[in-house]
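General statements about sequence and structure are easier to judge against a single worked case. When preparing material for the folding task, we compiled for one chain both its residues and its backbone structure tokens. The amino acid sequence and the backbone structure tokens for this protein are reproduced below:
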Amino acid sequence: MTPRFLNFRRNAVSVMALSFALAAGACATPGAGRPTPVNYVKPTDTIVTDATRAHPALWPHAASPAAMTDAATEAFVTELMGRMTLEEKVGQTIQADIASIKPEDLLTYPLGSILAGGNSSPGGDERASARKWVELAQAFRAAVAQRPGAKIPMIYGIDAVHGHNNIVGATIFPHNSGLGAARDPDLIRRIGEATALEVAVTGADWTFGPTLAVPQDDRWGRAYEGYAENPEVAQSYAGPMTLGLQGTLSADRPLAPGRIAGSAKHFLADGGTTGGHDQGDFAGSEEEMIRTHLSGYPQAIDAGVLSIMASFSSWNGVKHSGNETILTDVLRGPLGFDGFVVSDWNAQGQLPGCSNESCALAFNAGIDMFMAPDSWKPLYVNTLAQVKSGEIPMARLDEAVRRILRVKVKTGLFADSRPVEGHLNELGSPAHRAIAREAVRKSLVLLKNEGSVLPIRSGARVLVAGHADDIGQASGGWTLTWQGTGNTNADFPNGQSIWSGVREAVAAGGGTATLSPEGVYTQKPDVAIVVFGETPYAEFQGDVDTLDFLPTEPLETLKRLKAAGIPTVSVFLSGRPMWTNPEINASDAFVAAWLPGTEGGGVADVLIGDAAGRPRTDFNGKLSFSWPKDAKGEPLNVGQAGYDPQFAYGYGLTYAHGARVGPLSEESGVVGEVGSIDRYFVDGRFVAPWSLMLRDAGGEFRLGTESSGSSPRAGVAVRSTDGAGQESARALTFGAAGGHALIVARPVDLTRQANGEMALAFRYRLDARPGGAVMLTLGEGQVDVTAIFNAAPLGQWRTLKVPLSCLRDAGADLSAVDQPWGLRSAGGLGVTVEDIRLGSDEGDTVCPAA
């Protein structure tokens, strides 16, 4: 998430003095060298139980390098802390999001960190220029420089999870699920180096990575952030990625220019939650947690990772961010970590007795820095009060501040020079694009190649269908926006789509390539490539109940081409394995391309051969996630009892070593219709279990079935009509007496989604002006949208997004939502609606008055 710090001029301890001390290896002051852990009396408000108490003796050993706590650094920190006020110390422990803080706020509040969250950007413009990002960082640093008292730079973090993915023009690498298939630690190190440089040139100091989750249930919406279902891959990658981002820690100098601090995340077992529910609960033994979910943390710590992010998730019902035996006894004990621990987005509010604005429990358990995006101001005030009262011991505060300052020294934030900042030519540079293209090539996994349809002769006539010309879909979530939605190829000026790569490779061999998303043609092609898969998502939106790939259009296209005698090659884009047996059966070749990012040419490098049909590059990727035999989506991981996948962990064909794949079963194993908690009316249908209800002015309910008109008694009439697609919308006509149209089902809990800043979103077209007040409802919560509807032009489609938190504040009980969307009109109204769902706040939400 983002910035660095401007040129500071300090008063008491100068950078020159620090540099001299570092170079001389000096310092024999008390507390210098590797520090002794601070002992203090732990508060009695612990939430740890026998089932959630970690036993340090069971855990393996690791240690931050001695260079992290060298004598000169510790002496500098000790002297600086001696000059800090209590307010300045507490400020170091609070991190605010750029969407909720202004540079001038830092003249009053001595915060130690800011971040740019997934949907935060300069001026709320997700597609702001890289120059605007630099200016944003400089503005915050300038404010800190003007602040009286101890001159302590801020550390500015950003989620650069697959490249510097928040910035237009940056190199977008494959997501981790694809990189895991590459099995190439050196490639990971080089990706870390390239990412660090692209982050640094835009003014940032710190990225929240590497992600070391070991996903055990692929229904989890963050599965693509993990390298593999087996911890061996993360263990081999954690050290190289840390070294790529940071370089090797040194006792006599900070990180080199173009290097940034890393943050291994999410500690611990975020990939092991029951049912794959995000922010859920790992119900298992301590031994299992160590065996599977300790993952690459020891390797990252040994490599010198400067921070670790605590997980939202729980262990046997107790949140990690409040479990002192995990965050302190283990992490500071056998794991030997000397950096600082940052919490996840408002995670403190999920602990018992806590809120987003107040949580001594998390701090005392071992959280050193609160990620408090929009709650930073009251959290600062309350944390200060808790230290003054003794609820947070002073020794604990000093311990956290020392760790944070230590990292700031090592990151180089106290230095005046920023030699790479503003060198925006490094964004999407040819060298970085070459690494990304290599990563795409190495991550592709060949599942099927009947009749050696691959590689395709470059002189062939090639039809390319599906979503081949959509860089946004190929990049997935965490791309420019949190959910990765709404992107077009114009947002990737340095990128290349899969279609463009194929066209280029075929043209080089004298062949012809034609793009037809629908798979139609005038001249019969020699072969067809069909690109399809999941549309972008991140956490919340990405959680699914099954692994059934539901869209029918790709299968219909494949069957039609196959019936015409055209060899078919499927390129499947997904963040995880999915049940695609029907699509595999309808394909002569099937390639798992994961989420390859902005270098689609890497796909063509492997699929398209030379003019004689010889491979230019062979397949390299091996499955790092087991491919399912059915769609149920239950955990399927190598080594478990009854392990029976369609394609096993480690599977991957090559041109040199192929194998026949016979017909696969097309029995999905899913019984009945699966429900959804975040999609209500999509593609012209109400998604189970949701349905439309209509209520007249007198309060009488009836099912929202088709009708041709309205009457004062009926209150509301509904009919199908065209929107973005054929009959994809519903036209609602409210009679003069008004009424209420609402979507209903069994209650669902949307509190997590509200914490994630999700919004109730729908497209609408105003057909007739309101004859009275119009309210948007969610359960008992309602906000007045009359002015919005009155301002909307008739006959034009628009989108309205209202934050769940806004509706919560207007009276909605988000823990038991049985009416997630409704429109209530006090008079006549004509409005057509479609695509009603939860969406992410991308700077485009409004909160009308209740």
